[in-house]
Write a structure and sequence with these properties.
Elements: H1 3-18, H2 30-42, H3 63-69, H4 78-91, H5 94-115, E1 120-133, E2 140-157, H6 161-228, H7 233-267, H8 288-293, H9 299-320, E3 325-336, E4 342-353, H10 361-429, H11 434-468, H12 472-476
Antiparallel strand pairs: 1-2, 2-3, 3-4
Helix pairs in contact: 4-6, 5-6, 6-7, 6-9, 6-11, 9-10, 10-11
Length: 487
Amino acid sequence: MHTASFSVLLKMMTRKSRSGCRSTICRLPLRAVLTLLLWPVMVSAQCDDRADPSAAQLLDPPPATQTEAMAGPALMAGREQLAALSKTAVLESPDIQAAGLARTATQFDIEQIRASKSPRLDSSITAGVGRYLSNVNPRYDPRAVGAAALSLSAPLYDGGRIDALTRQREEQFEASSASLDAVRERVALDALLTVLDRNRFRTQLNVLELHVTQLACLSNLIDRIVDADKGRASEQIQARNSLRQAELVRDRTAAAMRYADVRLQTILAGQVMPWPAVGAPLIEVPVLDDIVGKIRENPDVRQLQRQAEAQAFAAMAAAAELYPQLRAEAGVSSKRQADRVDSRSWNAGITLNYTFADGGARAAAVNAAQARAQALRRTLDQAIVDRNQQAGVLHDTALSAYRRAVQYSGLLRDSDSLRRATYVQWASLGRRTLFDLMSAENAHNSLHLDYVNAMFEGFSATAQLRHVGGGLLTWLAPDLPAMSIRP
């Protein structure tokens, strides 16, 4: 393990131990946590033929592979990588740009409804040609005609309709802002889960490469044995079959990693970085009560709440239409008729509009708006219940995954000792069959993959747990709301 990589991880985990984390995984001794993180690169398969010192030796993973396991590239710790990943995903997402424009539209809706409460000044001018029948000359002669009018009107009383509509638009703006935050959350979470998938496949690929190399080493040894003892040709076939099966699994994993890379290229608009250490901060499982306490701050929950409030004000606006509508009006007009007679007039007064009967249309509109508001409140209540349950499941999933990873790390050490002892007994003493040796190798490889899957299952569950609560971005990059909408 490189000293620089180990130093970065040690400092990172030391900082975590000082942060007062109350989760089970954070109460583990520092040595256990380091072992948990570093075990995939500390375990190396060796084809050690002690009976034949000239036998091939399997090398340890190259330094780049060790660095990518957890420590990440130089100058980029796990938390910084998470923040950089989230910012890149948010800034490059067209969905976020669309949500930002939708929020801007609701701002103009507010300005529009507020303007309806101000006095309104209208003007009209008419110019043209008209034909008429003159009493003096019984012909249709064309004559110029024109008119001009100026009118001023302002609402005096509307039963609170404009105020209710204004509040409705304001709540819709808050709902659109929460919707924008929710889109940011989904984009950041999707990017993070995709990176975790890619890193999981990459780690699995490293494990499988070691397994293939080990089986290839054993197959070469069998070939040399068969050259001297033709009666063991069946062992040669068995070794080659095991090698080919391992190569197939490795190739499938490599294909899955390439697919994850393509998805990541799409999400990040081609700005893909290694981000190998994004899982390190996620090993700290937040306290369940803290997550549950922040569920109402979640953007999706806030959006539902604001939509319910907006619908309630829409019901109030509909109810206000049942009241009289009173407006003040004033105007002047001038007309020039075809016979060159001019007329001028002005008017001022108050207009009262009131509907005595409309067949129950307005009352039905009020009831419909109130029913929609109630439906949104029920949806909000159910969303909170669902998120409480989801938080509990994710919290248990994360802790269970990390506990399994700790158990797998111990099993891996025992399995590594077993397979080495089996190899010695097979190669040097002849007390084990090739089947025993292959079984030990395959069991060790399976445990190694189970360990990797458990770790990344814990990473994914922790990320989703923070997403269900107050939000992933509030933990990673709280400055994103100010920078996520490009001009």
